[in-house]
UniProtKB/TrEMBL annotation:
Family: Belongs to the glycosyl hydrolase 35 family.
Lineage of the organism: Bacteria, Bacillati, Bacillota, Bacilli, Lactobacillales
Statement: the UniProt record of this protein carries the keyword Protease: no
Protein name: Beta-galactosidase family protein
Any single Pfam family the record assigns to this protein: BetaGal_ABD_1
Occurrences of domain Beta-galactosidase galactose-binding (ranges): 501-559
Family matches, as PROSITE patterns: GLYCOSYL_HYDROL_F35 (PS01182)
Keywords assigned: Glycosidase, Hydrolase
Record-linked PANTHER family: BETA-GALACTOSIDASE RELATED (PTHR23421)
Tagged with keyword Mitochondrion: no
Length: 586
């Protein structure tokens, strides 16, 4: 059995060992793509693969766990070992990763006394229950048990959130109580305040830093911190950022291969260890895209997590692959696999209006005050409806404390869409004595970083309520939409309504399964599903218009794509493409 230690150097079986690692998120790529991705990682000269472990995908509902399919972390780690790679795991309750709520489950917010990432009884009890199940999967994978896992993370960038050492120690003790006996580490920004606040260096928990440039300066800062605490440990950049994530309505952010190569070379020349973040990009399938917080506003990230990484979203090498090989003096050709290919265009086979299938798709609740996203899964959309009395003259409506985006219908007419800066702006509209007001509220993604994790805005939905004139309005029906119920829809029955969001069905046959991209440029804003699997969000505002479909999501024979369109733009035809947009993959 092998042995891994952290002394002045990393020691593997008593011999100095250099960790050259790359991040691959098993939950962001399809299982059929794991092997080839790991083979490309090894051929690039790396010896270790690192991955986060998101709590929200493994415990989507409290007490219900999922370690199957693309969430089968044990299978992913065992495959890495089979291919001769070591593994670093980051199973902390919070992961950031530009992932919805930083990996924290939305159901935590159903508890009024919940304070995430704190040493409070409610939060720690939920972590304890999760860890009791999670580490059944992970403990056998440790190098101390014959597996490939070298070390695990206690918390992630906690120094950019808090400095509660009691909380960090509680997480550490939970890991150890559940059988973790490999070395533990923390990772933070490289400045002194972040390292001091987020580390457990006085408890002998290994300290790493995250950065993507100015390698000598950042390594020097990490070295100073260690020396201040009388530690002689190897230097490691746990996240060497080789690209960056992207947000809706903003240009694609890229990093040129030359600067990546120069800064990575400086790391290697300094005898440091590193983990490339990311080695392969991936996809924020479903409603799992996160959001950045800027000046009190949440800016959601896009569905593609291409990250301008060494391997693109679809697994094809970028220019950084060759740059990485040059730095590591490797000449092994990258293994090749099948390229994505387009499918034939498909015409719409049926269409329904959302308002006609609310009971089939939604968990209904009637209440005096409007409910929040705590009503359902916590993700996606919540549809509200109420009756408001007027006198055939303009009245003012105002939505108080609503997030994140809302389409407002009055008597079956869309009167406004509010988003970010316009949320809560008074709405002047004529009202009859029996006017119907309907709201489609979208949770566009919870923040994944910083103190705003604790903000009430992460609850999502209509929190305080709606003002009519000068009074709060009471008496609401609401439906928490559950798209796992798409198979229950009756597409043969014509939709009686002619307004509001639509669900468009496209059926087609496939005789050869292969990866492709769904082109959503003919639509406005919404979500696409293939064979019941949520591909993620699209938005005409960009910067991307295509959604990646791995071959795993296709079936031989008949396939079905359903597109929820929340604007007036809904094409009667869909097409496919072989690549993501040029501006993303150039």
């Amino acid at each position: 059995m092998e042995k891994f230690e952290i002394k002045k150097h990393f020691l593997l079986n008593g011999q100095p060992f250099k960790i050259y690692s790359g991040a691959v998120h098993y939950f962001r790529i399809a299982p059929s793509e794991w092997r080839l991705t790991l083979l490309k990682l090894k051929a690039a000269g790396l010896n270790t693969v690192e991955t986060y472990i998101p709590w929200n995908v493994h415990e989507p509902e409290e007490g219900q766990f999922d370690f199957s399919g693309r969430y089968d972390v044990q299978r992913f780690v065992e495959l890495a070992q089979e291919l001769g790679l070591y593994v670093i795991l980051r199973p902390s309750p919070y992961i950031c990763a530009e992932w919805e709520f930083g990996g924290l489950p939305a159901w935590l917010l159903k508890y009024p006394d919940m304070v995430v990432r704190t040493n409070t009884p409610r939060f720690m009890a939920k972590v304890e229950a999760y860890y009791a199940r999670l580490f059944q999967e992970l403990v056998p994978l440790q190098i101390t048990h014959g597996g490939p896992v070298l070390m695990m993370q206690v918390e992630n960038e906690y120094g950019s959130f808090g400095n509660d050492k009691a909380y960090l120690r509680a997480i550490k003790h939970l890991m150890e109580a559940n059988g973790v006996d490999v070395p533990l580490f923390t990772s933070d920004g490289s400045w002194q305040q972040a390292l001091q606040a987020g580390s457990l260096i006085d408890d002998d928990v290994f300290v790493t830093a995250n950065f993507g440039s100015h390698s000598p300066e950042n390594l020097a800062a990490l070295q100073v911190f260690m020396q201040t605490h009388h530690k002689q440990w190897p230097l490691m950049c746990m996240e060497f950022w080789d690209g960056w994530f992207n947000r809706w309505q903003e240009p694609i952010t890229k990093r040129d291969a030359a600067s990546f190569e120069q800064d990575l070379q400086a790391l290697v020349d300094a005898d440091a260890n590193f983990n490339l973040y990311m080695f392969r990009g991936g996809t924020n399938f479903g409603f799992y895209n996160g959001a950045s917080s800027r000046v009190g506003i949440d800016y959601p990230q896009i569905t593609s997590y291409d990250y301008d990484a060494v391997l693109h979203e679809d697994g094809q090498p970028s220019a950084k692959y060759a740059a990485l090989q040059r730095v590591l003096n490797v000449t092994t050709p990258a293994p090749t696999g099948a390229l994505p290919r387009p499918l034939a265009s498909v015409h719409r086979t049926a269409q329904l209006h959302l308002v006609d299938v609310l009971d089939a798709l939604g968990q209904h609740c009637h209440s005096a005050q409007p409910q929040t996203f705590a009503l359902g899964s916590g993700y996606g959309y919540l549809f509200y409806q109420t009756q408001v009395a007027g006198n055939h003259q303009p009245e003012k409506l105002q939505l108080l404390d609503v997030n994140d985006r809302v389409d407002v219908y009055v008597d079956h007419q869309l009167v406004t869409t509010q988003y970010q800066a316009t949320l809560g702006t008074p709405i002047e509209t004529p009202l009859t004595p029996t006017s119907t007001v309907q709201l489609l509220v979208e949770n566009t993604g919870r923040v994944n970083y910083g103190a705003r994790l604790l903000s009430p805005t992460q609850q999502k939905g209509l929190r305080t309520g709606m003002m009519v004139d000068r009074h709060l309005h009471y008496g609401w029906d609401q439906w928490a939409l559950d798209f796992s119920q798409l198979a229950q829809l009756n597409w043969q029955t014509p939709s009686p309504s002619n307004y509001g969001p639509t669900l468009s069905q496209f059926t087609f046959d496939v005789s050869d399964r292969h990866a492709t991209y769904l082109d959503c440029s003919g639509f406005g804003k919404g979500v696409a599903f293939i064979n019941g699997i949520n591909l993620g969000r699209f938005w005409q505002d960009g910067p991307t218009q295509r959604l990646y479909i791995p071959q795993d999501f296709l079936r031989l024979g008949t396939n079905q794509i359903v597109i929820l369109e929340t604007t007036a733009t809904a094409s009667d035809e869909i097409s496919f493409a072989a690549t993501q947009e040029e501006n993303l993959n150039a």
